[in-house]
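Data availability excerpt. The first of two example chains:
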Amino acid sequence: MSITSVPTEQLDLFMALEPTVEKEVNRHVATAEEWFPHEYVPYDVGRTYAGVIEGGEGWEPGDSKVSPQSREALLVNLLTEDNLPGYHFALRSVFGQDGAYGYWTNRWTAEENRHGIVIRDFLTVTRAIDPVALERARMQHLQVGYAMPHGTDMLRGATYVAFQELATRVSHRNTGKASGDVLCERMMARVAKDENLHMIFYRNFIGAAFEADANQAMRAVTDVVTTFEMPGNTIDGFLRKSVAIANAGIYDLRLHHDEVVLPILRKWGVFDLTGLDAEAEQARERLAAFLENLDQAAARFEERRAEREARRAARQG
């Protein structure tokens, strides 16, 4: 088994958790449903773009049928999916390429690849987004590269992906709902379903890590939650785009706190654990304080957003 990238202090845990990985792989394969990207793309509405082929038409903002507030989210979602080569390399560096770990890495990558395929095809065919701007953004984003936030640390890497997969599921679902397009919503719901199954794999993996070594797992979870950033944070203009996405209610601090972080922490029972050592207990206290601050920040953002919406409604009234 190739385990050279796993930190030395985690090698025993890496070996101990392989039966869990095999169990979760088997559960995932039995649960996952086969689906085909081409079935979610309305090819009959497509028409040739201006360019190499004579008679094509350039993209215009009026071509898009999705809501303006979802357009930024669709762009961010697709660019995030496009960076799959970087994610695969990072996960393979953590999990290796052999045994159940290696099988999962490749299976996960194969499933994730469908997401970029279907979203790109849909957006291109339906003219939802300027394809020239999209391709330039893709080139720029992928050239930045991707580095796992916690390097080759197995526990922190898997913990990060557990939260990230659930965050992506929430973002995808809400992007589809906000699009105002029935077909777009159906497509994003299909993608989100995959993300949920991926989240369950990583969530259960870390759940087993808590059973094997609660102290290491507790420290890892605190480090990840308190420094969490979405993998698309290197997209050009990400801050502006994320603000627009938050203002639209697609993904904001409240959703991150209530629908992503807390459900997974509850599943692991992090605040019910007993017998932690002093360092792990300090980590849990730091996590609790962070969650309280996050909840307060979410409340402030909701208040400011409501005030902005009230002023906008007053002007329009």
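And the second chain:
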Amino acid sequence: MPSPARALFRLACLLGLCAAFDIQLSTKCVPVPREMGLCQDVGYSEMRLPNLLGQRSVAEVLPSSAQWLRLLHTGCHPHARTFLCSLFAPICLDTFIQPCRSMCVSVRDSCAPVLACHGQSWPESLDCDRFPAGEGMCLASISKEDQYIYREFPKPTCQECPGPEDVASQKIVLESFCDNNFAVKVKLAKRKTAGGEQEYELEGQVEFINQGLLLPYDTRNLVQQWLLINENCAQKMTRSNRPMVYVMVGDVQRGNVMLNRLFHWHRRDSQLALAIRKWRHHKC
């Protein structure tokens, strides 16, 4: 560690901000592996082994940390990466810096429902009671102001998948636009990863029909996160290997984005196209 950083760390310890237990002689510093996608760009380049999960080698850390990447990409919590990397790849300092219990609870409460959506539970190894309760001896959670902003910021949630509708009259489409907060047109494709798994991703830009409470600069990422969380819906929406175009209609309630209607866009579906044109001048 560079001497200025070490001096800053010692000052933090004097102020009561260092970790809850000391490094043992058996621990060592190793570079954060480039293959460790979970903990890239976290602000440091070396980690301690064994880590806070008891893993003693990079060979142990890599596969177990990779399992959390999909959860991280859902955006379930703004500090999920910090929390997980403090356990899998703790920064190489004179003592371990643990996450606070409040950080664990905050991440768990936001991300556990996403795991549950995929039939998984919050692991016992991340039981929040194992972490220190004091805010001054660990990595604290986000501030109350940031928590408020995060709660109000539109974010996807786990839900039952609305069935894709192939045929719809102009009246049905316009009524659905009136009954909901937003409507967007997207092109969805599926592909296989190098590991043989299916991935679902958007092609091109999201086209707003009714923006509602969605944020224009973040909606594409929001829809991509919704697809990751609700993978069962993405499977139903990609019935062939060709990209599929949909009009997604839904609500934003207390910051949670819920999809309520899915209209499958066919090139020859004049009813849907006409309904979208009429919407510009339609009065609900």
